[in-house]
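Lecture notes, structural biology module. Today: joint structure prediction for complexes of two components.
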Amino acid sequence: GQQLNQSPQSMFIQEGEDVSMNCTSSSIFNTWLWYKQEPGEGPVLLIALYKAGELTSNGRLTAQFGITRKDSFLNISASIPSDVGIYFCAGPRSNTGKLIFGQGTTLQVKP
Amino acid sequence: DGGITQSPKYLFRKEGQNVTLSCEQNLNHDAMYWYRQDPGQGLRLIYYSQIVNDFQKGDIAEGYSVSREKKESFPLTVTSAQKNPTAFYLCASTSLSGSGYNEQFFGPGTRLTVL
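The predicted structure, tokenised, for the full assembly:
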């Protein structure tokens, strides 16, 4: 079945550093979604990507839809302590209206 | 303000009891979803509903039940048949038409603890 593999599983970085994480699949996706979940809260949608090769920014966050349609990348520039959380990628399961989620990348930022 | 609300935020239950988690949305979204999240894990789909009075099992439906009598509401009942119900439960919704199709929006979650 369809699966999304996120890496790295966790990151512990210094404030001010840039962060990169990615999400890969053996299946083709026509949409990639990136969410952030803070402790004890529900995930919040950060960026949605709909076209292969698309590069979209949201403040210090930039996400790219891989040209093979089997991967996506999320970059965070100049990290700050409030970037702490779990970042999930997600993609639709065919045309079911359901999403598949990656296992998440846990980010910790040291002030 | 439009959004998704879940209540209660924290819930404690004794073994053998059924408990119902509330989820309400005023986004006029068609579809609603229930997920379960365990510590250090991703989200697993329990049930989903794309239209009123209809719902489908997700990947881990055993021990859970739902209803969708109104478009705005999608309550989840955790029954005594669920063997390990302690978890963080998340409700989500999405529109099934127009731009933003597939973009699910989440509530703040309910943390259920079985004593």
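Point to remember: Chain B touches chain A at residues 4, 6, 31, 33, 41-43, 45, 48, 50, 58, 90, 92, 94, 96, 100, 102-109, 111 (CB under 8 Å).
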